[in-house]
């Protein structure tokens, strides 16, 4: 078995797989590695850059039910990296899930959210 980088100029060959299997467009950035054996493709893996939000902290005197400060900070991250790389966030508590939903981030598995 051999694993090699597939140059982005050849990613179009995988468009149908992304459409049918992942219900997704081809990625804008990253690397795709193809696994081959005896000249036949066995599979591939996509390695995407991702800006991960580590922590969100709002000083106590600015905390309120609207979560305006937290929303502004996450919105800033989404705008800052739009078109460069996706932004990912973990919803460790229900309040974060509400926040990411309000910002139209895509829920991946119940706790992980992403915005391209």
Query: Over all CA atoms, what is the radius of gyration?
Result: 18 Å
Low-confidence sequence ranges: none
Q: What is the number of independent domains?
A: 2
Distance separating the two termini:
33 Å
Provide the spatial order of strands within the biggest beta sheet: 4-5-7-6
Order of helices and strands: EHEEEHEHEE
Percentage of residues assigned to helices: 25-40%
Structure annotation, total helices: 3
Q: How many β-strands, per DSSP?
A: 7
SS-derived structural category: alpha+beta
Strand content: 25-35%
Give the overall silhouette: elongated
| Nearest-integer average pLDDT | 88
Main sheet characteristics: 4 strands, mixed
Plain-language structure description:
By secondary structure, the chain is α+β, with helices and mostly antiparallel strands. It has two domains: 2-47, no CATH class; 51-115. The chain contains three helices and seven strands. The protein has a four-stranded mixed β-sheet. Strands 1-2-3 form a three-stranded antiparallel β-sheet, with no helix packed on it.
């Amino acid at each position: 078995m051999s694993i090699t980088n597939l140059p982005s100029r050849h990613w179009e060959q995988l468009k149908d797989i992304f459409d049918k299997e992942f219900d997704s467009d081809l990625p804008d950035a990253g690397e795709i590695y193809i696994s081959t054996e005896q000249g036949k493709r066995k599979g591939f893996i996509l390695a995407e850059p991702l800006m991960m939000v580590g922590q969100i902290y709002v000083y106590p005197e600015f905390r309120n039910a609207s979560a305006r400060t937290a929303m502004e900070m996450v919105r800033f991250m989404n705008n800052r990296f739009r078109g460069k790389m996706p932004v990912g966030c973990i919803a460790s508590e229900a309040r974060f899930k509400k926040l990411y939903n309000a910002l139209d981030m895509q829920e991946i598995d119940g706790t992980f959210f992403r915005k391209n």
